[in-house]
Input
Amino acid sequence: MGDVLIRSVRPWSSAPDTPAIDVLCRAGAIAELGPELTAPPGIPEADGAGGVLLPALVAAHVRPCAGQAEATLARLVAAGATLLRVHGPAEDLDELLAAREVFADRATIQLVAFVAGGLVREERGEKLLDAAVAAGADLLGGLDPAGHDRDPVRHLDLLFELAERHSVGIDLQLRDPGELGAFVIELICERVAALDMRGRVTLSHCLALSTVEDHRRELLAELLAEHGVSVTTLATAWGNPLPLRRLRWAGVPVGLGDDGGDLLDQARLLAEANGFERDDEVELCADVATRDGARALRVGGYGVIEGDRAELMVVPADSVAEAVRQRPPRTLVVHDGRVVSGAQTAGG
Output
């Protein structure tokens, strides 16, 4: 955990006339905010140049192509992502494990292992997930229990049994649409309740939410919130976007994924996909890419107030909405209280 004093930034600024302040980070957390703070002896300083201070980006769903894990993570980290959840096949997890080590000092990376051939259809499915956890996977995943594995009940029984055995969470890629996907959501929530796994299950994509009737969508959002299930999405994948407003009203944490670029650009695309034009609507998408994304990954204290984690980035823009629309290069990126991108000044 590191220390740094960031000079001249405007925390989550919604307007260009927001005054700049300083932010002192100690032992990996935000310790103090205020104008013209005095740097304690030996604490390095970094110049935010009056930019907007945001929580660092959260890549809540990343699935690199084979042979590209390190390059994919490098692009995301360079753009300011310091918390990532990466999905990979349990059959070949070595590449992701190695890539996680490469970036261990610049980002927190959660690994999700799933059986590409299908947890039920692949004879070794259960053994592959057992071995993945032993090798270092943080969560267990699955891939379309109905559409891909053709046996949603057996798939979910096995997945939840394994998660309970290893005391790990679940992040299931659920692209089954319409009522088929809605049925799978109901099965998942039944198991969450039965095994007391509230707050430990995430659904990636969750296309059913954008492909059922409005009333059904409301009921599903309430069901997810009741069982503490979070959702992650890609901005431009598979047609209709997730109903962000409905999920927010229900209290479902939503995270934003990217397969290897700039999460601020994905936030812009998410706004466009939802028809968001007002600044407050664009800010909602920035929140999904940062604070709410961390909630979706069950990481608390992710913000820009005292006591929050020192996972931060500074963007040269007048406001949060402008930062999303223009996606300028990051002035600073801070991980665990240490500047990992951008220049330190006095004391550094």
Notes: The longest helix spans residues 178-194. The longest strand covers residues 45-55.
